[in-house]
Amino acid sequence: TPSYGGGNVSYEALSLGCPLVTWPGTTMRSRITAALYQQMGFATLIAESAENYVQLAVRLACDPEWRIEQVAQINALKYKIVDDRLVVKEFGDWCWQTLIQISHEI
């Protein structure tokens, strides 16, 4: 969507192979789904304009063969966001570093 990025809804939809059309804006919240697609290496459903957003949405709704192709690609690539352990490790590392820093300040 142009103003909102989906967050958890995008993660859940993509983990189920559900295609989402997105049009990233200037705010972080409007770029979440596009960022997920980029992490997956999939850019087909990232719109570049309002007109392109409508074209992609209509094609996804009205062209069953193309939609099946998009679902297949998403299902083949979703492991890159669903099984990404790097984010968990980096967050854990940050937590430990923060605890260490705080303990030295006390």
In short:
This protein is mainly α.
Distance between the termini: 46 Å
Largest sheet: none
Gyration radius, rounded = 17 Å
**What does the overall shape look like?**
elongated
Structural class: mainly alpha
Oligomer: single chain
Give, in order, the helices and strands. Answer: HHHHHH
How many helices does DSSP assign? 6
Uncertain residue segments: none
- Helix content bin: 55-70%
Number of strands: 0
Task: Average the pLDDT over all residues and give the rounded result.
Answer: 91
% residues in beta strands:
under 5%
Structural summary, described in words:
- The chain has about 110 residues and is mainly α.
- Helix content is about 65%, strand content about 0%.
- The protein has six helices and no strands.
- It has helices spanning about 10-15, 30-40, 50-60, 65-75, 80, 85-105.
SSE layout and pairing:
Elements: H1 8-15, H2 32-40, H3 50-62, H4 64-77, H5 79-82, H6 86-105
Task: Name some characteristics of this structure.
mainly alpha, 6 helices, elongated
